[in-house]
Amino acid sequence: MSVGNDRRHQIVCPKCNGSMEEGFLPDASRGVIQDTKWVRGKPEPHWLGGVKSPDQKLMGGLKDSTACISVLSYRCQKCGFLENYAR
Length: 87
Ligand SMILES: [Zn+2]
Prior knowledge:
The chain has 87 residues and is mostly beta strands. The protein has one helix at residues 57-61, and strands at 20-24, 26-27, 34-35, 37-39, 44-45, 51-52, 68-76, 82-86.
């Protein structure tokens, strides 16, 4: 008997076939908890320390929404493997 479409898509762990639960990776570096973002390109060292995006404008203004995407993280409840999606 197959599972109906009413159930949410179940992600299975590629390592152990355990069930994965949805979550996110919090970024609390600025005093508030935000979800971690995926940013296109390579990080460039910033002269104040840390890194900046190749297109630094998007870090402040989020001008290009396709270049800065929230990261969803799925955790295996059996072995702890993490699988991340930015979409
Ligand atoms: Zn697993």
